Amino acid sequence: MRYEPLFAFQREAIKSQAHEENAWTVVCDDYVTMTDGTGIVHQAPAFGEDDARVGRENDIPFLQLVNTRGEMDPVTPWGGVFIKKADPMILKDLDEAGLLVAAPTFEHDYPFCWRCDTPLIYYARSTWFIRMTAVRDQLMKNNRAINWMPDNIKEGRMGNFLENVIDWGLSRERYWGTPLPVWLCDCGHIHVIGSIKELCDLGKDVSPDIELHRPYIDQVTLTCPKCGGVMRRTPEVIDCWFDSGSMPFAQWHYPFENKEIFEANFPANFISEAIDQTRGWFYTLIAIATLLFDTQPFENCVVLGHVQDSEGRKMSKHLGNVVDPWEVLDKQGADAVRWYFYAAGAPWLPTRFSGDLVSEMQNKFMGTLWNSYAFFALYASIDNYDPKAQKADPGDFTLMDRWVLSKLQSLVVTVDEGLSQYKVTETARAISDFVDELSNWYVRCCRKRFWGNGMEGDKLAAFETLYTVLRTLSGLCAPYIPFMSESMYRNLVVNNDPDAPISVHMTDFPTADRSLIDEALEAQMEEVINAVSLGRAARNAASLKVRQPLAAMYVKGAKVSPDLAGLMAEELNIKAVNFVDDARAFTTYELKPQMRTLGPKYGKLLGKIGAALKTMDGNDVVDAFARGEDVTFDLEGTQIVLTKDDVLTKPMQKEGFVAQTAGDMTVVLDANLTPELIEEGYVRELISKIQTMRKDAGFDVTDRIDVTVNGSAKINAIVEKAAGDIMSGVLALSVNVADPAQDAYSGDKDINDEKCLIGIRVVSR
Description:
single chain, four-stranded antiparallel β-sheet
């Protein structure tokens, strides 16, 4: 089947071409479907991959009417006009010739230059290819030998790409780049040069130090061994991705030298780049390694996701949402940026990025770590602690010391093993969790140990423990936050040990001392921390300040040693800790009918079912559902069967108790306050206010002070009764009911709605 071309110049343009007789014919191909459009498509072999293939397979003449500048060819009526500007001209000429049926507008994706927004076109060019399709099986075999992270890249994005691999268009029509080392003769002979030596041997007057780039290399000619003619280099350069893929051996100038170094470093242990490199650098590395060595070029690859703006959108100058990295680096710092990318999420997931997000994570981890370090540095300076000379007696290390040292060694194991498996995010989060517990559990619980006089006993053990933790953390964190780690290391280690390496980055990575790991202690302390967390939540729910002592707490779902129970009591300001098998004596459940399921089954009885549920023991009902049982009862002659999905349950506390539950653990606080407990709460409030005044007045943490309090009769009586407790709590030498001295720092305070005037002054330093 044939058709007539639209313009006469088209016939003129293909005259004298091979297979001229096949022009203007209708052919068939599988890629055209009957489900879209008319089932007939126009072919443009000069601008489309399928079009070019169909043209070659059917010997259709090749017609190119656009030059390399995107301008119409002079043989057309629109010669020299840019293609997009020629569109309306062509439509106008077709209309005037009576050949235009319609010119509707269709919206579709179109390529534009990412730099200047110029419309682009696909353009058929003569190209040198590497026949990658011939090594498809080897490519897939070598790909499967690589540990891809995430693993789905192996058989997914990369595997699918290799399974459908096409031949590699190697050449580029550019000036800059690695020249294609192919010399051609008019007789058709082709020769590929493999080294400078070969070029010198075969080329005419070639110097060994010749510049191998254009234009110098283009001046080199060879003598054709077949016809004796002059062979000249083909003008193209090589795709720059070929250079990138050649990196493993090209960096060592292999095979011409450094054979041992190359073989010792190939395949590489690890590489990393963004996900779009599965069709870029990752592919070219695999392609060239397969062609030359039939092996994979790297053993592990972490595939990175793209960086987006704070709302999850692709950064673009057009949208104005591009984050200037230097602004973030100048404000938050390089360490903060590094840490954000390590800890924010799995490397292969898209990452939202902004200065605020970096600051949030910086404060959460780096701020917490620095506070712990600054706390140690302050008290070590006050007490002139020397980590080399002062060593604690093993018997002075407390349960808290042994716990944090055990956690530290477990962390070293986790990070060391995790990094060996390229688990960056998991290890970063493990470090962050440890630092959080170090600051908010160990340092906070042990704070008073650093206040005592002298440097002995459990105080020295506390110093040694915290020093060990911080020094080890400086090494663990060095790959993540190199500058902050260096600052900590220099102050902690170099300033105290002149023989130590001058930089943390010159030390060995920490090695775990597994003999210090006590998994049972760690597990029990985890239960203590969880119970304390629930206890604090219960206090908040009941509006009970931590400074208000309570008589008792009850813990279901955990049981720890007496020492750890004492720690729990101290943290929550509880007189007694009791471990129980169930909390039904303090808690119950509110039961309501689930109308969505019961309405269709029991209709008008729904209200009476709700009334019946109110009479039931909530604990018994929930326990029955937990055993997989139904709850049944008779109502007006109808047997009611309730499943777990038929009843809405809500935990409730019995009068005088407050409870919080998480997982299998329930913590119940006895919220009934006796006069003695209330009085002790006043004492705690007084101590807190005085401590805040010490800080506001700028007193040193070691200053001894005198305290005066003058307020209501109730406050004054409490002060006189509890003077000793107040003195020990605020480093006071005396506490009296009186007006403040003239040189005292003083202020009016509210102590649980009781007014008083407090004065403090330094009497000993």
